[in-house]
């Protein structure tokens, strides 16, 4: 038993020594990036899938749990693959040119995005829309910072909020098919289901009656 413990400690010391080697840093960063992508994807998707599935999806408990597991796995896998691809390509470009330049990041991410997130499915679509909204905010702030557009005299956020909500509700009311299914479900719950009730039970307690009254 003691021999086994000594072997494990020796292996642990060897692994820790390897992790400290600067020449392996780029390759190890790619591996840890894969790990972090998988963990982060699971942390983000699992609670979201849990809430959305039990709120809006029908079916048995087993079917719901399977749906949650599949969505969590897909998000976790895609993010892990993307980080692995991005960091690998970034390291390769830096090694080939002898230094890191801003275009390396853009090119590596474009290739990773094409390969990993190019499939048009609900998970990828939601991730891309999440990123797109933050890109638009980021580019707007960068444009002001670089002087491409003047600094607003007043905070433009109230106007942005008004336009976003005005546009999305107009699309929901008159061009619903253009919106993502999960957003359609959320808005149906908020703005249409609140128009229907039969008695106090489905007015305050439940959204919809489940009996045959």
Could you write a compact summary of the structure shown?
The chain is mainly α.
Largest sheet: none
Q: pLDDT average, as an integer?
A: 90
Give the helix tally. 8
Helix content: over 70%
- Give the overall shape: flat
Order of helices and strands: HHHHHHHH
Low-pLDDT stretches are: none
Strand content: under 5%
What is the domain tally? 3
First-last Cα distance: 69 Å
Q: Which oligomeric state applies?
A: single chain
> Using DSSP, what is the number of strands?
0
Instruction: Decide which structural class fits the backbone.
Output: mainly alpha
Rg result: 24 Å
Pfam families: Tim17
Protein name: PXMP4 protein
InterPro entries: Pmp4 (IPR019531)
Walk me through this protein's architecture.
With 213 residues, the protein is mostly helical. It has 3 domains: 105 residues, no CATH class; 31 residues; 50 residues, no CATH class. Helices cover 76% and strands 0% of the residues. Helix 2 packs antiparallel against helix 3. The longest helix is centred in the middle third of the chain and has 37 residues. The chain is flat. InterPro entries: Pmp4.
């Amino acid at each position: 038993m003691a021999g086994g413990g000594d072997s494990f400690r020796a292996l642990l010391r060897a692994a820790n020594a390897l992790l400290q080697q600067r020449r392996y840093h780029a390759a190890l960063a790619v591996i840890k990036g894969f790990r972090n992508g998988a963990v982060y994807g699971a942390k983000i998707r699992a609670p979201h899938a849990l809430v959305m599935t039990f709120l809006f999806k029908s079916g048995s408990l087993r079917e719901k749990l399977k749906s949650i597991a599949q969505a969590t796995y897909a998000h976790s896998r895609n993010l892990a693959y993307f980080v692995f691809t991005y960091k690998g390509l970034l390291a390769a470009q830096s090694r080939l040119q002898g230094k890191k330049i801003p275009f390396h990041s853009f090119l590596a991410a474009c290739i990773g995005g094409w390969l990993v997130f190019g499939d048009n499915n609900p998970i990828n679509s939601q991730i891309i829309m999440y990123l797109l909204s933050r890109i638009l905010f980021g580019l707007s702030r960068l444009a002001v910072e670089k002087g491409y557009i003047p600094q607003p005299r007043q905070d433009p956020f109230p106007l942005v909020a008004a336009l976003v909500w005005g546009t999305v509700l107009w699309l929901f009311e008159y061009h619903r098919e253009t919106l993502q299914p999960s957003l359609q479900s959320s808005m149906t719950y908020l703005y249409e289901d609140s128009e229907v009730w039969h008695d106090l039970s489905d007015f305050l307690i439940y959204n919809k009656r489940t009996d045959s009254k």
